[in-house]
Amino acid sequence: MSAHPVGASSSIASQHAGQLARLVDQISTIIVGKRSQIEDCIACLLAGGHLLIEDVPGVGKTTLAHALAVSLGLRFSRVQFTADLMPSDLIGVSVYERSTEAFVFHPGPVFTQVLLADEINRAGPKTQSALLEAMEEQQVTVENQTRALPLPFFVIATQNPSDQLGTYPLPESQLDRFLMCITLGYPDRASERALLQGEDRRAAVDRLQPVMEPADLLLAQQAVLQVHASEALLDYLQALIAATRSGQWFVDGLSPRAGIAVLRAAKARALLDRRDYVAPDDIQAILAQTIAHRLVPVSGAGRGQREQVRAMLQAVPLP
Fold it and tell me: pTM, whole model, 2 decimals?
C-alpha cells in the first residue's frame, strides 16, 4: 500500500525535522542505547498524550523524564507516589490566611508542564484517580473551581512490575489515559560500559541546554494533526481494531478512543520520520506500545500482552 510518493516530504515535516532530530540526539547522549524508546517518548508527547513506563528501578526512567523536560525548556516536577500520598498533595489545597481573611489556593506539583509521577502504582486508588481529570482535560477542579494547567502538559508515570510488594494495579480507566506504555529494559553491554565509564547522568542532565522552546513544541503538536492518513491506511487501522474485537486475540477489544490514539501516535511517528503522511510502518512501529496496556489476552494464549499484539499484527494483512 502506498499512501504517498516514496521519499516525499512537506514543509509541515521539514519545519520541525531539524529540531526533533536534535532533540532525539541530545537525549540519546543521556539515555544510552535506547534510541527507539526515546523516539516513542517524543512521539507520545507530540501526539498530545501521556506516557507510562513500566520497568524495574534503576534503568533510567526518572533521568529520561528530566532530560526531556530540560531539552524542551519545560517546567519539571517530580512526585514520589507512596501509600500515604493524598490527592491534595498532588493537586494543591486552599489555606485560610488571616492577613486577607480569605482562603488562598496553593497549587500542588501538578501545575507544571512535565510531571513525573514516580512509582504511580504505589499510591492508593484515590490518589491515582486524582490524575484522571488533569490528564484528560488538562485542568483540575478544587472546591468546585476549575483551574487550567499550563500548556503543554505531559505526564510521565513510572510503574513497578505488579508482582513487587506494595503496588496497587492501575484501574482500566487510568491505563486508558496513557497514550503509550513502554519499557526501557537493561542496557546492552556496550551501553552499560559507557555508563560505567562516563560521568553521573544527573550531572550530565544539569548541563543540557534546550534544543526547542515550549512554543516550538506546541507548533509541532499542531503539525501532527496535519499529517495525512489515506483511506487505505484507515482501512488497515480499522482492520486491526476489528481484530482486537473478534474475541480471537483479546477478551475485550479496543475502544474508539483507543483507535484515535493509535492514529495520533502513528502521525507523530511519521512526523519524526520527516514525512507528512502516515505509512503502515508507522502503525506497526507504535501499535504494541499504544494498545498492549489496554488489552487482556484471551485465556490459553500463552503470550503476554505485547507478544499477543505482535502475533495479531502478523495475522492481519495489509488491505
Answer: 0.87
